């Protein structure tokens, strides 16, 4: 309640006080006279072509003039009048991005020549003469030409340097990896404000391209104003209205008949869900912007809707059922913005983003499955951002700030048929696999996040210094309704008579139809079906001086401090996160810029690791006794407060089959406290008694940009990042290291080992049994017995991982000018090594993370991205987008046909294995030591514009994967079904493939 009152007060202050919001942008112009020397005392006028705003200033002794506190709406023109020495000047339109100073050079012509020099164009990778930032930008004009599936921003970002498509660890995992890092840690901003889903990562509101004025990916040496990630930032600037009415209406369809159907292709929806060859997508939307009150009040509105449809097959022959089930995925996205100019000094904006994404799991499977519609579910993702922003321009200073309320509701498994038991049906005499699953999805995962953010930035110009200071606070409340099914998950065996009685029920079959006498094999109940959570406070402050040391040299000196309250769940908290950042930009000529940076970048803690520690924790007496044993043996610190690292708020599932008289006559799960405290688990988690440190990285960069001709821009950037304190898992109750008998394996060979009995393999040191491994665990009873209420593995999240990233990026950009084509090519040569790929990453054997240091799961060696547009006629545009990349790493696992198992060291499975697959590696083969083949995909688009009343009609066709290349690497996929896990010694097995060729048609009317 205290935070709500504080946020309300801040919101009220923002509404009435100048400078209670955040969207500060600026232009700095460098004026050169006809002789190439700085032109001092020249009057420069800045005019906004969209809103009518004007500013005027005079260049200083170094020929520089700066306009701060500018609106990102519309485009700005810079003009100078004719003087006795110079001719009149007008620049190209300059569009601004959120929280960035655009630097342009204006070369004035001699008076009387009749020449007007036009310069200052900002493009995808415009000449950066401002700072050391390594970044790339796509504006709305460039975006409109790129072939992009379903107008998805995420699919668009893969075209930019430093960005690759990520292998994730759950089907809907975010896919945008910057500098090869885990995509969970990418930071997303809209107009400089948080748009990150703070539970697991990714976009909170999945912004479509229709609500994007420009998008910038910051990959290195960026301003101290940006933080909370040690990797990269995606910053979107939204459009705003102006004095002219503009709009568009569009429709997009994905033609099914042009798809090349391949049984092993990885055809997925926008959200990572597998779909069949019957998959179709239709979408439509409208955008509108213009004045409410001319020169004063402007609006922007974008509404988009997407509908995906795909069929699954339900096949339950024992019940006489085979049917085709249609599933729908829908997406409704709304962005609205109102800008108000109160005075020439003060303006405000109110922005709203609302998203409703529903993904249906209708039952069945792509080629057949036994899940009935009653056990299906809907994944519902609802998002909301409400942001009030304003900027005040004073004399010699700008003051900007923001207040934003955000909401994210993620119900991962909303039951289609409502609450009730899940029942897996087995045919009596064959318990190997169920013949049907009915009633309920079988689990609960309903995450709710409420976030308040306020940010304030003061910018002061004092001669050669531009000093910025800022404060940012984000408060997020999390509540998770999670765990098993409180109504029970049953395994039931049916006799032939029972099966005969269920014939003819068809798709309507439900748990109510089952005979009361059915044999119950197991009955698992969630005994604590309640919500749990904790708040997260993120506080940061920064100060930065951009110092124009000489006419050609700009120095950036910054210091940022971050605090994350999750680091003090147990412990004192990580309060020493002072992160200095240094940068320089040297421009010896108007066509050459050399820049470099060195700094420390601090990352926030993903809330999911705290949620997992609550959900899988326990205060059962047997578990507490295990923790005391670990403490006594020095595996927990001597000063550990066991009460502080445990909780009883989490989920615990109990098998109460022996207490159920029938499916409808079972005890209240909440009454099973005794059973809960005596239940043994494969894994439990605790809070880290040492607390957590925020992950961080030391980054260094060096780059050069050169404009050899008017239409060409060339660039090269070196980037180095040394990551520390990465999140990973440690098993405090791990078994002793397993020493594989390599000599014996070499003597016998694979065929000889396969011929041995399990006991012989164990005796020869080729395999260790679960029992033998458990006997070495420090906190198990004699003989490796798990005590009542205890766990085999006792896991803690720690922040001790490390990584090293090295990259060279080359770029070449050609502007169109008056020509017939333009384009850009990026080439990145990189290497990423780490000993933690994910928050659920654990060492292969006995916490030996040093043995796991190797290529990252998302490491690439070469990546080439090319975008080329041709303009054969004024109405026709042909666009080609190519992505060429090296194969991703492969880890090799043991062959179960040789060893009888893939778990050679006997440490068993864990909670994390459900998501990361954490397999044992083949002995003697390092992690991720193999490589998949490279991948090349080419997309082609063509658009034709036809004059229409008051506007233009555009018809566009896009072919994705033009040559139908079947790729095995480089596309978003869940690791557990990717090709990045192969059996050592066997031929390559393809588990998935990149999407096949598809065709998309768009019709758009704009005015």
Helix content: under 10%
Calculate Rg over CA atoms.
30 Å
Q: Output the number of helix runs.
A: 12
Specify the structural class.
mainly beta
Concise structural overview:
By secondary structure, this protein is mainly beta. It contains twelve helices and 49 strands. The strands form eight sheets. It has a 22-stranded antiparallel beta barrel.
Description:
The chain is 9% helix and 45% strand. By secondary structure, the chain is mainly beta. A hairpin with a 5-residue loop joins strand 2 and strand 3 (54-58). The longest helix is centred in the N-terminal third of the chain and has 15 residues, at 2-16. The protein is globular and about 100 Å long. The two termini are 47 Å apart.
Which key terms come to mind for this protein?
1007 residues; globular; 12 helices; 5-stranded mixed sheet
Topology of helices and strands:
Blueprint: H1 2-16, E1 25-32, E2 43-48, E3 54-58, E4 64-70, E5 76-80, E6 89-90, E7 101-107, E8 134-139, H2 140-143, H3 153-157, E9 163-165, E10 167-168, E11 176-178, E12 187-190, E13 193-194, E14 214-220, E15 233-237, E16 246-255, E17 280-293, E18 297-316, E19 321-341, E20 346-361, E21 377-393, E22 397-415, E23 422-427, E24 436-438, E25 443-462, E26 465-484, E27 489-494, H4 496-502, E28 519-526, E29 531-532, E30 535-548, E31 553-564, E32 577-589, E33 592-602, H5 608-615, H6 621-632, E34 653-655, H7 673-678, E35 681-686, E36 696-709, E37 712-731, H8 742-754, H9 758-763, H10 770-774, E38 791-814, E39 821-834, E40 854-855, E41 862-873, E42 876-885, E43 889-893, H11 896-899, H12 913-916, E44 930-931, E45 935-948, E46 951-960, E47 973-974, E48 981-983, E49 998-1006
Parallel strand pairs: 1-7, 10-47, 12-15, 23-27, 35-38, 43-48
Antiparallel strand pairs: 1-4, 2-3, 2-5, 5-6, 8-14, 9-11, 12-13, 14-15, 16-17, 16-49, 17-18, 18-19, 19-20, 20-21, 21-22, 22-25, 23-24, 25-26, 26-29, 26-30, 27-28, 28-34, 30-31, 31-32, 32-33, 33-36, 36-37, 37-38, 38-39, 39-40, 39-41, 41-42, 42-45, 43-44, 45-46, 46-49
